[in-house]
């Protein structure tokens, strides 16, 4: 009999814990800083690495952010690539997040590895949304 009364209460506590955990957006961004996120999509190659042509990027490829003066203000790396189920095996998407980018620059340059195709300049407003590179 006691178990019947405890079960609904245990379920309610479990649901509250799970829902509360899902609402966490991640670590807070310190004042004066911003978080940049985005992806690099490599087309016509799978993530499996069995292509005869080397990919321009891989998981661990450096991501560098420079301010308007060309000073490096933040660094990160690409995460491991994933092939979306609807794209078959002919695409590999590498996500990235760069934490601690100081606000206040008129422009920011984002560089992914050493490939000249993966260098773009952005305004602060453009960095508010995820950025996307396609090669």
Spatial order of the strands forming the largest sheet: 3-2-5-6
Alpha carbon gap, first and last residue: 64 Å
From the 3D structure, determine the CATH topology: Immunoglobulin-like
* Number of helical stretches of at least 4 residues: 1
Compose a concise summary of this entry:
With 135 residues, the protein is an alpha+beta fold. It contains 1 helix and 7 strands; from the N terminus they run αβββββββ.
Topology summary:
Blueprint: H1 2-22, E1 33-43, E2 62-66, E3 72-77, E4 91-102, E5 108-112, E6 119-122, E7 131-134
Parallel strand pairs: 1-7
Antiparallel strand pairs: 1-4, 2-3, 2-5, 5-6
Keywords: Signal
Organism: Actinomycetospora rhizophila
Protein name: Lipoprotein
Features:
three-stranded mixed β-sheet, 1 helix, signal, Lipoprotein, 135 residues, four-stranded antiparallel β-sheet, alpha+beta, 16% helix, Immunoglobulin-like
